[in-house]
Structure formats: structure tokens, C-alpha cells
């Protein structure tokens, strides 16, 4: 419904439109070239075709990027650290989100260096997520990465419940999944991004603002989940974690 909702907003003749995600931003760009658009969690603004330049985005679109492709390799590294016998990683993503395609590209580049095999599974709804977990015949040596998008975020409870039931270690790009019961996450703080987005909305009419990239990434670990799946988290990981949920 992105296109219909974008058209509805444009008809309201607003001063600024704030949005979340690559698909939402793309829909708004197609709907208007006049109303300023401020995005808050676009993964790759240039590769995703949102802007031509980070320093001078021009057009009517700017915002705060979560820059998630830059941390994709770290997700695999942390999974391998917490469970060294992992050899295969299931990656859940919404195929319609071009930002997640770029994340997958970076994961594919990093996997061979860690002797990992990736199985990328397209998920569009809860039924697809259920089927994805049914492909895991033997959980030994398998880890899960659910890339953050509209599908996985709205179905995060289902994802973490299935992972815990199958005793599978998980890592995510945002801590909302860990707060729901996932094992760990590494990425940006979404709340901070939305606060920065509010500042952009305040300033956008004063001039052309550059795209802002994150300066910090958080590692969040859920010890309760680790215990539930029979996993001992290395003490060094707990030492440099930004937040440990007990």
C-alpha cells in the first residue's frame, strides 16, 4: 500500500513528510518532487537510488541513514564467535526492500572468509517465516539473521519464538528483536535516529541538508535466550556489549 498512502499524503499538501524505510521513501519520491521528504532508516541512500550524493543530496529528499550494509559482515562474525561450530546461516529478508538486497550482497561477500554458507530466504508474511524455519532439519551448525525490514520487525515475536524453540542462535540489526527475546543484535539505535529525524524536520526548510550516517553501533545480548537455547556466551563478548538483558 506504499504508493496509495504516499499519494494520500501528497494530496494533503504538507510542508514536510517524514518516513521510515527504503520502500516508503521510494514511494514518496515517486509521488512528489516538491514536498521535502525526511527519511530515518534508509540502509544505502546512494546504492538504493534515493540520492546521488550524501554530502549534497539535492532534490527533495534527505535524512538519517542506518548504513546497515557496513555492519553486515560483523553480524556473521558475532554469530561465529558465540557459536564457533556454525557452518550455515539462514538470512530472512523482504525481497521487495532494495536496502535489504544490498545487505545480502555484503553478507555474501563476508561469508566465505568465515567458512560460512548463506541460505537467503524471502519472507513477505508470517507464513513465509514459518516455512523458513521448517527448512532447518538439523539445528546443529545453523544460525539465523533476520534483517530489519517491515516484515521481520512486525513479526519479530514469531521469529524469536521459532528460533528459541529450535535452539538456534540469532542476531539482528536492531535491539527491538532482542528485547522481544532474540539472542543478540548489532546495529544502530532506532530511537536516536528518530530523534535526529525530528531535528531534520525542523531544519529542512532552512536549506539543503546532507545525509547523516551513524557514528555508533550497539551490541545487545539476551542472556535469558542464550540459556534457553543452551548457549554459553563468551565472557569477552559480554565485556564489550553495550547492553546485556538478563
Q: What do you see in this structure?
A:
The chain is an alpha/beta fold and 246 residues long. It contains 11 helices and 10 strands. It has a 7-stranded mixed β-sheet, with helices on both faces. It has a 3-stranded parallel β-sheet with strand order 1-2-3, sandwiched between helices. Helix 8 links the parallel strand 7 and strand 8. Helix 1 packs across helix 2, helix 3 crosses helix 4 and helix 5 packs parallel to helix 7. It is elongated and about 55 Å long. The protein starts with a helix and ends with a strand.
Spell out the key features of this protein.
alpha/beta; 11 helices; 10 strands; 246 residues; single chain
Short summary:
By secondary structure, the chain is an alpha/beta fold.
Tell me the layout of helices and strands.
Elements (H helix, E strand, L loop, with lengths): L1 H10 L5 E3 L2 H10 L5 E6 L18 E5 L6 H11 L5 E6 L4 H13 L6 E6 L3 H9 L7 E5 L3 H5 L1 H10 L4 E3 L3 H4 L4 E4 L2 H14 L14 E5 H6 L6 H6 L2 E3 L1
Parallel strand pairs: 1-2, 2-3, 4-5, 4-6, 6-7, 7-8, 9-10
Antiparallel strand pairs: 8-9
Helix pairs in contact: 1-2, 3-4, 5-7
Amino acid at each position: 500500500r506504499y504508493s496509495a498512502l504516499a499519494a494520500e499524503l501528497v494530496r494533503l499538501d504538507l510542508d514536510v513528510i517524514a518516513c521510515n524505510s527504503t520502500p516508503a521513501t521510494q514511494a514518496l519520491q515517486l509521488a512528489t518532487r516538491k514536498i521535502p521528504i525526511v527519511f530515518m532508516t534508509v540502509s544505502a541512500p546512494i546504492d538504493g537510488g534515493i540520492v546521488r550524493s550524501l554530502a549534497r543530496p539535492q532534490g527533495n529528499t534527505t535524512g538519517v541513514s542506518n548504513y546497515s550494509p557496513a555492519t553486515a559482515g560483523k553480524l556473521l562474525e558475532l554469530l561465529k564467535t558465540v557459536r564457533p561450530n556454525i557452518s550455515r546461516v539462514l538470512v530472512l529478508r523482504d525481497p521487495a526492500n532494495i536496502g535489504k538486497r544490498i545487505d545480502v550482497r555484503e553478507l555474501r561477500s563476508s561469508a566465505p572468509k568465515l567458512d560460512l554458507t548463506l541460505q537467503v530466504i524471502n519472507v513477505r508474511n508470517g507464513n513465509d517465516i514459518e516455512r523458513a524455519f521448517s527448512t532447518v532439519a538439523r539445528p546443529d551448525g545453523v544460525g539465523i539473521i533476520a534483517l530489519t525490514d517491515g516484515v521481520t520487525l512486525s513479526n519479530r515475536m514469531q521469529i524469536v519464538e521459532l528460533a528459541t524453540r529450535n535452539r538456534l542462535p540469532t542476531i539482528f540489526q536492531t535491539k527491538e528483536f532482542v528485547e522481544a527475546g532474540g539472542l543478540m543484535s548489532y546495529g544502530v539505535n532506532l530511537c536516536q535516529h528518530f530523534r535526529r529525524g525530528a531535528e531534520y524536520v525542523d531544519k529542512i526548510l532552512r536549506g539543503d541538508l546532507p545525509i547523516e550516517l551513524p557514528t555508533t553501533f550497539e551490541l545487545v545480548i539476551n542472556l535469558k535466550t542464550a540459556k534457553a537455547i543452551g548457549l554459553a556466551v563468551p565472557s569477552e563478548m559480554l565485556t564489550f556489549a553495550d547492553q546485556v538483558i538478563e
